[in-house]
Design brief:
ten-stranded mixed sheet; about 300 residues; Glyco_trans_2-like; transmembrane; membrane; transmembrane helix; alpha/beta; about 20% strand; globular; Nucleotide-diphossugar_trans; three-stranded antiparallel sheet
């Protein structure tokens, strides 16, 4: 019987992904009582990741670890975050599922600690403490983005004063946790039909946890299991802003009233115009192009 399935998506981050898997294996060695499978799905990488993953899988098999197996799925296309995770989950045999970004690193006994803390809790989903580096905390949980929270996040840098995002120092019930690292049961995940595959990247976890909230499920945060998260290692700033704007609009269309959607679009247009104006002031063509693209996304949606 498999206790835990760890799902990791690989896409053109060969060395980062290798480091992630190595730290996960090292963490699992702190508690060999957990029967674990690591499922790695490669989204058609072109940087040698596939070959590296084959070698790593072979190495683990040669070590005869009775508590650990590696499953490798090589996709012929880039499935993105949502489709990739859903596809990998279909191959999972574990009672529990741990989703990790390839740019995460498990510190010490983080994986077994998160597994045991979650197993003793009443949460349906839970995240761990994330750091950019060991002395720089990442605010990795928060409140749902209603119009007020969205306004504060877009214009008042509310992440910096922990209104929209924060990182508690004790076990806490929260609205959502970062999709870079969260644990659940296979039963709970399948009750929600997994991630919404209309979302390619960004907002996938917020949508998942909002649907969990609607169904009366709870999300928790545990501060003691620690993971490093090299946020944005597989994306560009240009893509990030456009994807985030697309995610905002999709989320509001799906879950909020029309007047809330109208208000959101006004805020996103204003944010884009401010970004464009700032780009002209500081003579930054990349900033101008970035927010022009974002503005067009709002107009088209």
């Amino acid at each position: 019987m498999t206790d835990l399935s760890i799902i990791i998506i690989s896409y053109n981050t060969k060395l980062i992904t290798k480091r992630c898997i190595e730290t996960v294996i090292s963490s699992l060695n702190h508690d060999r009582s957990i029967n674990t499978e690591i499922i790695i799905i490669d989204n058609n990488s072109s940087d040698g990741s596939k070959e590296m993953l084959r070698e790593l899988k072979s190495l683990v098999e040669k070590q005869n670890n009775n508590h650990l197996r590696v499953k490798l799925i090589l996709s012929e296309e880039n499935l993105g975050y949502s489709r990739g995770n859903n596809h990998a989950e279909q191959h999972a045999d574990g009672t529990y599922l741990l989703f990790l970004n390839s740019d995460t690193e498990a510190i010490g006994n983080a994986v077994p600690k998160l597994f045991h803390e979650f197993g003793k809790s009443r949460f349906d989903f839970a995240g761990a403490k994330l750091y950019y580096s060991l002395n720089h905390v990442q605010k990795s949980c928060g409140r749902f983005y209603n119009p007020f929270i969205a306004f504060c996040a877009l214009f008042l840098k509310s992440d910096s004063w922990s209104l929209s995002r924060y990182s508690p120092n004790k076990p806490t019930k929260v609205d959502w946790v970062s999709g870079a690292c969260f644990i659940t049961t296979k039963k709970s995940y399948e009750a929600l039909n997994g991630f919404d595959e209309n979302i390619f990247m960004y907002w996938d976890e917020v949508d998942l946890f909002y649907r969990a909230h609607i169904k009366g499920m709870s999300v928790g945060f545990f501060p003691e299991p620690i993971f490093i998260h090299l946020e944005g290692a597989s994306g560009t700033k240009d893509d990030q802003i456009v994807r985030i704007f697309q995610g905002y609009i999709y989320f509001y269309k799906k879950h909020y009233a029309q007047h809330d959607l109208f208000l959101l679009k006004c805020m996103l247009k204003l944010k884009s115009l401010i970004g464009i104006a700032l780009g002209y002031i500081v003579v930054n063509s990349k900033l101008i192009d970035r927010y022009k693209k974002a503005y067009e996304v709002v107009k088209k949606n």
